[in-house]
Structure formats: C-alpha cells, structure tokens
C-alpha cells in the first residue's frame, strides 16, 4: 500500500471518529465504565497524543537521522512482522497499568478532541508527499514491533486508529 492510500484510509477512519464525536455529550465522553478502563474521551486523547508525540515524532526522528535513529537495519520483532503481514493490529484488548505517563487525562472539551483529530490528519497529509524521501535505513524502535522505518510508523498510525474502533464500539455499549 502506498502512502497516498494510507492517507485516504486514515482520512476515512478520522472522519468516522469525528462523526461519532458529534453524537456524544460531554458527559458521555467523560464517563468511565469502571476505575480500570478509560472513558471515550480518554481513548480519543490517547489516539491523538500517541500519533502526535510517539508515532509522528518517530517519523521526524527517521527524517532527521541522528542519535535516536538506528542505521543498523530494519529488524522487526516477531509481533511487528505479524502485524505488518496482517495489515492490522490483532483484535485483542491491550491492558497497561495506569500511570501518569500513559493514562490520558480526561478531555477538556469536544473541540479539543476535534481539533486534535484534525491536526493529526493534517500532519499525515503534509507528510505523505515527502515520506518516500526519508531514508529507509533510518529506523526508530517501537516498544513491541522492533525497528520501524518512517513509512512503517506512518502505517502504524492508521492501524492504531482502526484498532481503537473496537474499543469505541465497546465503550458506546
């Protein structure tokens, strides 16, 4: 799949999230099923923040090169190989312990979420034409998938958004 197709798929899934967002009240966005789970609003912030700070940040590191980048190869972990062969994250719930670094705060407003989704989409559209210029031997490690190229990080953003549709449907009840 080329970068243009990835952006088109990402735009579709982003538009789905934006459409869903319009139907929620702020109270619904903040409601947590229990103390262990995130609210719908926290899930939206997770998508936005992980795209902006981890995934797009890793693409930028690949683009710039430097100390955060491995030029030793593009070795993915077994999990990473499976995810990319399948073209999606496995449909399983990932549980991580609550922590200030990982657990998103509750959103302040629907506008914050809307603006964040649109910002990530805009960044993806801006990156698409230059993605092919980023050296494929520049890789940045993903915590589970191993070393990823800029294009692979780009794909991960779309896969991650698609993966969380399962959580959104579950949280909507």
Automatic annotation (TrEMBL):
What InterPro entries does UniProt report for this protein, alphabetically?
DinB-like, DinB/YfiT-like
One Pfam family of this chain: DinB_2
What domain of life is recorded for the organism? Bacteria
Give TM segment ranges: none
Which residue range or ranges hold the DinB-like domain?
Answer: 10-168
Q: What is this protein called?
A: DinB family protein
């Amino acid at each position: 799949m080329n970068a243009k197709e990835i952006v088109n798929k990402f735009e579709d899934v982003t538009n789905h999230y934006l459409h869903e967002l319009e139907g929620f009240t702020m109270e619904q966005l903040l409601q947590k099923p229990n103390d262990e789970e995130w609210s719908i609003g926290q899930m939206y912030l997770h998508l936005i923040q992980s795209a902006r700070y981890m995934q797009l940040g890793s693409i930028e590191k690949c683009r710039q090169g430097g100390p955060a980048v491995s030029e030793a190869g593009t070795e993915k972990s077994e999990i990473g190989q499976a995810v990319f062969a399948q073209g999606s994250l496995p449909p399983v719930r990932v549980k991580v312990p609550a922590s200030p670094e990982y657990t998103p705060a509750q959103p302040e407003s629907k506008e914050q979420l809307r603006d964040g989704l649109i910002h990530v989409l805009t960044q993806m559209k801006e990156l698409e034409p230059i993605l092919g210029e980023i050296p494929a031997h520049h890789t940045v490690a993903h915590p589970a998938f191993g070393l990823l190229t800029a294009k692979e990080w780009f794909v991960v953003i779309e896969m991650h958004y698609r993966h969380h549709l399962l959580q959104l449907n579950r949280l909507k009840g």
